[in-house]
Amino acid sequence: MRILWVKSDFLHPTTRGGQIRTLEIVKRLHARHEVHYVAYHNPSQPEGPQRAREYCSYAYPVSLAVPPRRSIGFVAQMLGNLASSMPLSLSRYCSSAMRDQLAKILAAQFDSVVCDFLAPAPNFADMSAVVLFQHNVETMIWRRHVEQSPDPVRKTYFRIQANRMFDWERRMCLAAGRVIAVSRQDAETMRQMFAVDAVTVPTGVDFDYFRRPPNPQRTADLVFVGSMDWLPNSDGVNYFVREVLPLIWRNKADCTLAVVGRNPSPAMQALAKRDSRIQVTGTVPDVRPWLWGAGVSVVPLRIGGGTRLKIYEAMAAGTATVSTSIGAEGLDVLHPSNIRVADAPQNFADECLTLLRNSAQRQSVAAEALQLVTSHFSWDVVTAEFERLLLETRSDTEIAGSITTG
């Protein structure tokens, strides 16, 4: 097949779950098919286009300055978006340059066209032959922001964004030739919310890459791994430090926490300065030693969508995990055998303490989790299913086209 893959960014440096999922799938597709990759190019990260040939045959960088969050440029975008009907998280990635590039490339013949995430979708003039790969139900993320907002101003802002996102996400899903979700739960949510018949590919993990070495060096009792400039992650860690960690400290005063992920906010970094039991690393060259060296991986998310690769990665690393229901949402995991799930702060603290104190339980949970991911969730299996859906969509499109022309 000749596949056109469109995303809002290149895949290196690989620092986010969505990038990992895409990279693992696309590089395996590239081994068997001709992949053309279109994405915005960040001049400050030349590694992206430079390494694109690792997963595609042809790369098409499109210039666009996307201001980072917590910047003056981002504030300007927020203000400029106030009167728009499009949510800010989509309008940030709309450009005439991308629309022109897609129109030019699509003049050629492709067997499959994939829009990766919702963000690039408004740049397509016609989505009818496009496979929309939905890593999240974006509307659910924004609605959860509304639920967790601590003040009326942010609650109002997030509600406006959630309403706009619903309108656009529904429109793009209905316009697409096929929608692929990353969990059965997301697919069902999209069916109910947007009246679209989404199909599913599971989340995978490279269990050979995360395989635990003998006698890893201890890093911390508890570890959280995730990009700290993604609001659901920063909200989850702030909640954990504010509501859960003090309950743990009442019973285990020396318990340590490592927060591992890029671009932590100044407020997050200040936590580590105030208490030596908390370590905020920022970007690290390799997250695996932090997982291998921790007693328990925590995923205290209250906001989110899709599926969290960080849970399968912790499982592949042989590290027991405690998560909220939202953190483990959409994954084929089972409490209490291969993960511990708790939502109330005291329950979450109790699960962490139980695993930290009881090595037999901790090792049992970790062993069950490792067996789960190695048996069912390799990226080769995930990619084979994705490839099957692309071929099926191609056949459906050809049949529909012959009927239309006939």
Which helices and strands appear, and what pairs or packs with what?
Elements: E1 2-6, H1 17-30, E2 34-41, H2 47-50, E3 58-63, H3 72-80, H4 88-91, H5 96-105, E4 112-116, E5 130-134, H6 138-148, H7 152-175, E6 178-181, H8 184-194, E7 199-200, E8 220-225, H9 231-251, E9 257-260, H10 266-274, E10 278-282, H11 288-292, E11 294-299, H12 309-316, E12 320-323, E13 340-341, H13 345-357, H14 359-376, H15 379-405
Parallel strand pairs: 1-2, 1-4, 2-3, 4-5, 5-6, 6-7, 8-9, 8-11, 9-10, 11-12, 12-13
Structural overview:
- This protein folds into 2 domains: 230 residues, Glycogen Phosphorylase B (Rossmann fold, 3-Layer(aba) Sandwich), CATH 3.40.50; 157 residues, Rossmann fold.
- The protein is 46% helix and 15% strand.
- The strands form 2 sheets. It has a 7-stranded parallel β-sheet, sandwiched between helices. A 6-stranded parallel β-sheet has the order 10-9-8-11-12-13, with helices on both faces.
- Strand 2, helix 2 and strand 3 form a beta-alpha-beta unit.
- The radius of gyration is 21 Å and the shape is globular.
Q: Quick gist of this model?
A:
The chain is of the alpha/beta class and 406 residues long. Helix content is 46%, strand content 15%. The protein has two domains: 230 residues, Rossmann fold, CATH 3.40.50.2000; 157 residues, Rossmann fold (3-Layer(aba) Sandwich), CATH 3.40.50.2000.
What is the level-2 CATH architecture name of the largest domain?
A: 3-Layer(aba) Sandwich
Rg from C-alpha positions?
A: 21 Å
Helix content: 40-55%
Please work out how many helical segments DSSP would assign: 15
- The outline comes out as globular
Count of spatially separate domains: 2
Q: What does the main sheet amount to?
A: 7 strands, parallel
**Secondary-structure element order, N to C:** EHEHEHHHEEHHEHEEHEHEHEHEEHHH
